[in-house]
Specification:
Order of helices and strands: HHEHEEHEEEHEEHEEEHH
Number of strands: 11
Strand content: 15-25%
């Protein structure tokens, strides 16, 4: 019933837009012989509004994947580079938190591992909002930073890498079966904030899926049961995403396309020295205002990727 209601709302929105376009066209045809400047300005504003509405709705058509409307789980982990790479993870975390704030999405840090002296070795964040996964799936891959390192006394330029993984937060039924024998569970005391109860008791949970080696950790909930449920949900999302990637690679193989995977295949570069630029290597979309991107202004990159993914 929820799916039917969502589809009806989508169809009704297109029908409403169609009616508004027809009404505006009829009014324009009736007033072709008039030379009222106020009326012309009013019609121009209405046409601009309709065009903007159409563009926004056309964009949502690209978010029609099975789980595009779901919440998203982002995991960021540092590549080689020590403190510099760990600081890059924290910068990316801030970028995504700011992006979510701009869109009025809610965020919740599920797990994080502090860096050695600065930054984060890894962090996992839940992003709650309509189409969160549909938007953020474009961020999956290796992100490369080039800058003068604030941790280098010689002020040398460093290149750092961080891996961003994005999976849907699947709360309902999913065609992923996990046998209890395939999952190894460890419990430990939470290292993060959350009060004495969390820190004195072994509430944090780490799940390892033995067939794939995927490890999921959750420590933000108050009870071990809640952390286990959240971790299991994330594990299902990761297994679903893994299966989707396998299907995409198989389709690409059948089409004769080549897909590289691994750390050397960065999807986006953020250059802060000797010049400032952010460039997406999949779509060739680039901007010179790197600070704005790192402050969460990602929509242009997300839109470019979605258009590119559907051949637009």
């Amino acid at each position: 019933m929820q799916q039917l209601s969502a589809l009806q709302n989508e169809v009704n929105a297109w029908l409403k837009l169609q009616q508004e376009v027809e009404d505006t066209r009829d009014l324009l045809e009736l007033s072709l012989d008039e030379t009222d400047p106020d009326a012309e300005a009013e019609y121009a504003a209405e046409v601009e509004r309709l065009e903007k509405t159409f563009t926004e709705m056309e964009f949502l058509v690209m978010l029609s994947g099975k789980h595009d409307a779901d919440d998203a789980v982002i995991s960021i982990s540092a590549g080689a580079g020590g403190t510099e790479a760990q600081d890059w993870v924290e910068m990316l975390l801030r970028m995504y938190l700011r992006w979510a704030e701009h869109r009025r999405y809610k965020t919740e840090i599920l797990d994080q591992l502090e860096g050695d002296g600065a930054g984060l070795k890894s962090v996992t964040v839940l992003v709650k909002g309509k189409y969160a996964y549909g938007y953020l799936k474009s961020e999956r891959g290796v992100h490369r930073l080039v800058r003068i390192s604030p941790f280098d006394a010689a002020n040398r330029r460093h290149t750092s890498f961080a891996l961003v993984e994005v999976v849907p937060d699947i709360k309902g039924d999913i065609d992923i079966q996990i046998s209890p024998d395939e999952v190894e569970m460890d419990v430990f005391r939470s290292s993060g904030a959350g009060g004495q109860h969390m820190q004195k008791n072994s509430t944090a949970v780490r799940l390892k899926h033995k067939p794939t080696g995927i490890v999921v950790t959750c420590e933000n909930q108050r009870s071990q049961t809640q952390n286990k449920e959240t971790a299991l949900r994330i594990l299902k999302g990761k297994l679903y995403d893994l299966e989707e990637q396998r299907r995409a690679e198989e389709q690409a193989r059948l089409k004769g396309e080549h897909i590289e995977a691994g750390w050397g295949n960065q999807i986006r570069s953020y250059v802060l020295h000797p010049y400032k630029m952010v460039k997406d290597h999949r779509t060739n979309h680039e901007v010179g205002n790197a600070e704005a991107v790192l402050d969460g202004r990602l929509d242009d990159f997300i839109h470019a990727f979605l258009k590119h993914s559907v051949g637009g």
